[in-house]
């Protein structure tokens, strides 16, 4: 089994979203985090194998998969979102393990309970730890419920908080004569953890769990009960205070199980539809009105704010109804995660939106009440907070803001919705900077792609950086690094001229026939995919770099009709969140209004040397002198032609990188980019 650990590439520091002005189309949701991790653990504990389909692939599910693998479960990947889990049948296969559970509450709590029970009955030593924030998230109520049963649990950091050490000797027993008592008013995950762990001790006797205090987040307990039933455990519920796991209970695999789309993740698109789907509804696939997830009730709150929502068995369609949205006053205890989205919808409302009974927000990935209040104020909103409530009044004047996300995926996804501010009358509409956007990997790694796949922006609002310069100055390298650092698209315009040249060669066309070459350029069947260039679906990336192709590209690029034929294609690359375009005339002709223009140069000797090294490293023999002569001839042709000659735009910043490393060049341009940003640095 391959490792499930997330890539450790450095995370992009920020993503700037331009003002967005609409949404349209269809979005497919990733699997629910709550269901995915519950199903994985149940599949790991039960007898037999379980094929889990539509599983969420995210940080939180990866730590659960890693933990199960460390505990001896065989896990086979069946496809990008399917795994087959061979369960332990309630028997520990390894007696000792140290499990790293990141910041996944849905892994820490139920695994702690299950391993405490198994270690007590069968013997074993387990250590469960996570990231620093996980060690600040209380688990004392669960520990307090398990210790009276005879479970040996130590909290070597702070009492009542992870990390946890669980131990026991073989042949132990659990004290289950009296009901197991657990508090339900801080987090429902403690009850869920016990409901999933105690069937392991219910083969011969019924186990009763009693909840102390008012149980919060009941819909999540309903998910637990529903999934337990799918795995053969029919819990009897008396109100929300008493739960009985019948004697003779034993986990049984359902064979195969499909994970629903994530209803909490749906909330961002429901909100986007309510705010910005003005022409046609936004379709959301993967979850519908019959969902077992409590956050599906977000629909009712969104409707109360004005959204028009149609529902089907596995889909939703959302369109703007009332506008501005209606401010609401809501007890949001039943939808604690999705209610964060209502706070951002409050920015678009006709008055003050109040959310109360949300104390659990304070012990989530971050203190979400405080974080939301701090960040929404940056947009200009008037926000008040209390121990268990938040109220939001929309900005009268919107500010471009850099939003901290506190390693909290929901903060990042919520922040993105502020980019529709132009629809609320922000004049001018302002961009939104989301800091550490990669934190969405916890539940929705492709969130920003999904959002930008359905959101529209006015082309003029999409920022462009142009990088022009002579051959082999490093334009392509610099531009692709900039695009990666900013999360922007990249246009290598030289590739379009090269592709046209290749098309001319392949068609055996006359390169001197301007109209014929322009006709080929106008219907260039070109696609860019994952750094590769496809012509009629065939990868021609390497062929485009051949010298004969570069030489012909340089010749045909002087033909005005050929240049004109490629203009629309190039303009089409200007898509949210932004574009880095490199070539010869990006700043002068194609994107004259670009926010930042760079003219990149290096001495001819340096450039010839770099090209020489580049070719040698690819195993292509080359002569330094002839390379230099060739690139100088090309530069001369590019500079002297009448159509879009190579020259710096008047407002371009000049960068001679003869003595600069690639990293230093990238840093310099990013610093220039910061100079032209409107974001307050509070
Ligand atoms: N600042 C730099 N320092 C050293 N080498 C560099 C630097 N920038 C780029 N290079 C190297 O120079 C070579 C040419 O760079 P690149 O292909 O990006 O140039 P280009 O301007 O896009 O060329 P062309 O116009 O032919 O497409 C590459 O091998 C690249 O790694
Ligand atoms: N905007 C542009 C880009 C390129 N060219 C011409 O195409 C040739 C190939 O470009 P590379 O950047 O890939 O080397 C180049 O020699 C230029 O003549 C152009 O005219 N305008």
Automatic annotation (TrEMBL):
Residues 23-451 form the Enolpyruvate transferase domain. 3-phosphoshikimate binds at residues 33-34, 38, 187-189, 217, 337, 364. One of its GO terms (cellular component) is cytoplasm. Phosphoenolpyruvate binds at residues 33, 105, 137, 189, 368, 410, 442. GO terms for biological process: amino acid biosynthetic process; aromatic amino acid family biosynthetic process; chorismate biosynthetic process; pyrimidine nucleotide metabolic process. ATP binds at residues 469-477. It catalyses: dCMP + ATP = dCDP + ADP; 3-phosphoshikimate + phosphoenolpyruvate = 5-O-(1-carboxyvinyl)-3-phosphoshikimate + phosphate; CMP + ATP = CDP + ADP. Belongs to the cytidylate kinase family. Type 1 subfamily. Belongs to the EPSP synthase family. This is Multifunctional fusion protein. It comes from Rivibacter subsaxonicus. The gene is aroA.
């Amino acid at each position: 089994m391959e490792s499930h650990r997330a890539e450790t590439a450095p995370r992009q520091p920020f993503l700037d979203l331009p003002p967005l002005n609409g949404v349209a189309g269809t979005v497919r949701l990733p699997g629910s985090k709550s269901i995915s991790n519950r199903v994985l653990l149940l599949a790991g504990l039960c007898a037999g194998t379980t094929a889990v389909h539509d599983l969420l692939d995210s940080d939180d599910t990866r730590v659960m998969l890693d933990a199960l693998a460390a505990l001896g479960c065989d896990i086979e990947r069946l496809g990008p979102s399917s795994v087959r889990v061979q369960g332990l049948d309630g028997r520990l296969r390894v007696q000792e393990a140290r499990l790293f559970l990141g910041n996944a509450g849905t892994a820490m709590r139920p695994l702690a309970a299950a391993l405490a029970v198994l270690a007590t009955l069968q013997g074993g030593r387990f250590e469960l730890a996570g990231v620093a924030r996980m060690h600040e998230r209380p688990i004392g109520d669960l520990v307090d419920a398990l210790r009276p049963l005879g479970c040996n649990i130590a909290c070597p950091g702070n009492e009542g908080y992870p990390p946890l050490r669980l131990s026991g000797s073989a042949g132990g027993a659990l004290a289950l004569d009296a009901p197991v008592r657990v508090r339900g008013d801080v987090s429902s995950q403690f009850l869920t953890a016990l409901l999933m762990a105690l069937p392991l001790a219910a083969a011969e006797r019924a186990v009763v769990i009693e909840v102390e205090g008012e149980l919060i987040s009941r819909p999540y307990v309903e998910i637990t009960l529903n999934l337990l039933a799918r795995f053969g455990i029919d819990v009897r519920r008396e109100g929300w205070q008493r739960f009985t796991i019948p004697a003779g209970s034993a986990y049984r695999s359902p064979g195969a199980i499909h994970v629903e789309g994530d209803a909490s993740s749906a909330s961002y698109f429901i909100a986007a539809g309510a705010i910005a789907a003005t022409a046609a509804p936004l379709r959301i696939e993967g979850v519908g009105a019959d969902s077992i997830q409590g956050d599906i009730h977000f629909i009712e709150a969104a409707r109360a704010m004005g959204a028009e929502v149609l529902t089907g068995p596995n889909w939703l369609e959302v369109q703007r109804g009332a506008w501005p949205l209606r401010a609401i006053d809501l007890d949001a205890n039943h939808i604690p995660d999705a209610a964060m989205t209502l706070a951002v919808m409050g920015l678009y409302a006709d008055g003050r939106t109040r959310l109360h009974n949300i104390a659990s927000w304070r012990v989530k990935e971050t203190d979400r009440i405080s974080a939301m209040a701090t960040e929404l104020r940056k947009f200009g909103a008037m926000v008040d907070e209390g121990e268990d409530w938040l109220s939001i009044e929309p900005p009268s004047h919107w500010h471009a803001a850099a939003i901290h996300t506190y390693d909290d995926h929901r903060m990042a996804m919520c922040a993105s919705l502020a980019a529709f501010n132009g629809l609320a009358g922000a004049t001018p509409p302002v961009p939104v900077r989301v800091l550490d956007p990669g934190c969405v990997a916890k539940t929705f790694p492709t969130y920003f792609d999904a959002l930008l796949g359905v959101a529209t922006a006015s082309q003029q609002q999409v920022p462009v950086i142009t990088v022009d310069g002579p051959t082999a100055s490093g334009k392509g390298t610099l531009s692709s690094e900039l695009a990666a650092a900013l999360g922007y698209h990249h246009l290598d315009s030289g590739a379009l001229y090269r592709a046209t040249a290749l098309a001319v060669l392949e068609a055996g066309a006359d390169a001197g026939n301007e109209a014929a070459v322009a006709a080929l350029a106008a219907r260039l069947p070109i696609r860019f995919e994952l750094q590769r260039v496809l012509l009629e679906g065939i990868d021609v990336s390497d062929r485009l770099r051949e010298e004969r192709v570069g030489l012909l590209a340089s010749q045909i690029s002087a033909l005005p009709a050929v240049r004109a034929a490629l203009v629309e294609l190039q303009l089409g690359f200007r898509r949210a969140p932004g574009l880095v375009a490199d070539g010869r005339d990006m700043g002068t002709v194609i994107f004259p209004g670009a926010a930042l223009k760079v003219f990149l140069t290096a001495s001819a000797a340096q450039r010839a040397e770099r090209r020489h090294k580049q070719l040698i490293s690819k195993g292509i023999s080359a002569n330094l002198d002839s390379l230099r002569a060739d690139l100088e001839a090309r530069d001369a042709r590019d500079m002297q032609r009448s159509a879009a000659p190579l020259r710096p735009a008047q407002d371009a910043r000049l960068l001679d990188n003869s003595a600069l490393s690639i990293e230093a060049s990238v840093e310099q341009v990013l610093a220039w980019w910061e100079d032209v940003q409107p974001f307050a640095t509070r």
